[in-house]
Design goal:
Distance between the termini: 33 Å
Number of helices: 6
Strand content: 15-25%
Radius of gyration: 18 Å
Order of helices and strands: EHEEHEEHHEHEH
Number of strands: 7
Amino acid sequence: DNDDDDGDILCSNNGNISEEDERDDPWKLWDNSSFNLVDTYPSKFIVPSAMSNDEIISAASYRSRNRLPAVTWRARNGAVLSRSSQPMSGITANRSLSDKLLLNLLRTKGTLNAIEESNNPSKFYILDCRSKLAANANAALGKGVENDKNFVNTRLEFCNIGNIHTMRESYQLLTKLISPGLPRERTIMES
């Protein structure tokens, strides 16, 4: 055990979680091996165990390409880092109760109705890699942007990355330069 390590591996035994572990863990593995829910996510990814399968599917349907918020890392204090695509809120700012539940469970470290959360709510940050202008323009196309006012103790930050497609092309060129001759594989940047 390394005391300098700030994070935890969320599952052991090569990704297998026993039924006993699952009952006590606020997180569960979603079986995406058929890639029916999210074709750009791995065969298994982590979601809150407090949500039903139907709620997970509903939350996914609210996101562009079904890319629902999925846990990618957890700090020792239980805080998580997750990834997702933009909500399909559109110009009318449509909302999804399942998506709201999912984001709130991410904020509360996967637990519902914890006394400490009601007394001292966790801070929650949503980072949108786009510029605010690009995010708002996508709303006119039926996609959208998070509204931090819809969530407790939440702050939305824009990272102002110009054009993600240009970033992807730059990444591909850099990879080709660094690793000439290696077989080309699909990477996270290409998902």
